Amino acid sequence: MQKTICLLPGDGIGPEILAQGVAVLKAVAQKFGHDFLFEEALIGGAAVDAVDDPLPAATVEACRRADAVFLAAVGGPRWDGLAPEKRPEKGLLRIRKELGLFANLRPALLLPELAGACLLRADVAARGLDLIVVRELTGDVYFGEPRGVEMRNGLRVGYNTMIYNEEEVRRIARVAFETARQRRKKVCSVEKSNVLECSRLWKEVVLEVHKDYADVELSHMYVDNAAMQLVRDPSQFDVILTGNIFGDILSDEASVITGSLGMLPSASMGASGPGLFEPIHGSAPDIAGQDKANPLATILSAAMLLRLGLHMGPEADAVENAVRQTLRDGYRTGDIMEPGKTLLGCAAMGQKVVERL
Ligand code: NAD
To answer: Which of 108, 219, 294, 355 has the most CB atoms around it within 10 Å of its CB?
Structure first.
């Protein structure tokens, strides 16, 4: 099958890790008889340097033409002083908006091979950690109007608006319930309806949508409690459904407790058009260009790209199995290194996965 994949290497370790993701996709194409066409485009600081815009129009067009978008990471101290519109991270926010990617799916899974890296007490970790955060990505306080900083009565005032319409809540709720149906059939909707009107509407709409998903168990939790429960007993969660800002924070928390930022993939999906697949970590400027980065989050993002973006389930399984086999065989990058294991650089780690495919 012929598919076009738009590559966005971005900044820092981006090009190094994406090269390994692409090597894995090429191996998949060969093994399963597919024809993947790769088209590379600029985003982030690299795009600012080249054309003074973190998301050039040509990149948006290349993404729209593709069947899936594969992004590494953007940002770095070099661009931190730029105006907000020019900052690399703005390119990321804009491409999500341009492609209508309203659903962000972030699995947090504690692999038995990496149990030693988990930040939780052993008895808590032993209960298991296998959840997915379904975060709304294009609304909420990050995009709500009015927003600004201005003078009021002689004082500087900063303000943003938390806002959701019912259709925005409905469509992300459906993604969460559909996702749960493929898993353990449990959705926990996280909001702050004891204080926020916006959250009250959220809960109301989630309850309405749930009527179409009677086979899925629904619970509700305030965000402050959810933050606590994630470290007390993450095994209680299957799918966490939440808005943009709460999801931003909770998905980072859920992933970091696994202990391995360099292992975690994500997918951002819209109603139609290509999805965007990327590791959850940033551009790691501190190790960029040193062949030290862990490419596995990017390679696992390639697996999500295959499964959700190109509907190639067996191909995705093959990539995930190759990653686990690589870990079982004792290969590690620096961030997940343990005594008695073999330390590898970014390129060699990617190569081990390719060999196991
Ligand atoms: P980061 O995720 O880049 O790095 C945090 C720490 O984790 C660093 O010590 C880094 O070396 C390490 N790390 C991250 N990925 C790793 C990997 N694959 N292998 C091994 N170690 C890894 O977060 P940060 O330092 O807060 O941000 C750096 C830059 O990345 C900033 O400009 C930030 O805005 C940007 N950022 C981008 C994204 C994205 O592109 N989606 C996400 C988060 C941060």
So the answer is: 294
CA–CA separation, 5 vs 63, rounded Å?
A: 8
* Per-residue pLDDT, 46: 98
Q: Judge contact between 69 and 274, C-beta under 8 A.
A: yes
* Rounded Cα gap, residues 169 and 182, in angstroms: 20
**Radius of gyration of the chain from Cα atoms?**
20
Give tens-digit pLDDT for 28-38. Answer: 999 999 999 99
266 pLDDT higher than 90: yes
Cα angle 247, 130, 262 (rounded to 5 degrees) comes to 70
In the structure encoding, which two tokens stand for residue 225, read together?
């409690």
**Which residues belong to CATH 3.40.718.10 in the chain?**
1-116+265-357, 119-257
Cα separation, 249 vs 103, in Å, equals 15
114: its two tokens: 């990496």
Average pLDDT over residues 198-210: 98
- CATH of range 119-257; options 3.40.718.10, 3.10.50.30, 3.40.50.150, 3.40.50.2300: 3.40.718.10
Question: Can 224 be counted among the known catalytic residues?
Answer: yes
Q: How confident is the model at residue 182 (pLDDT cuts 50, 70, 90)?
A: confident
Q: State whether residue 239 is helix, strand or coil.
A: strand
The model's pTM is: 0.90
The residues lining ligand 1, judged by C-beta closer than 6 Å to any ligand atom, are 17, 73-76, 89, 92, 261-262, 278, 281-287, 293-294, 297, 335
Two tokens, residue 343: 């330390």
Secondary structure, 3-state, 181-194: HCCCCEEEEEECCC
Q: Ligand 1 centroid vs 261 CA: distance in angstroms?
A: 9
Predicted pLDDT at 257:
87
Q: Give the pLDDT of residue 112.
A: 85
* 284 alpha carbon – ligand 1 mean position (Å): 4
Q: Which tokens sit at 2?
A: 């012929």
Q: What confidence tier does 260 reach under pLDDT thresholds 50, 70, 90?
A: confident
- Nearest CA among 91, 183, 95 for reference residue 133: 183
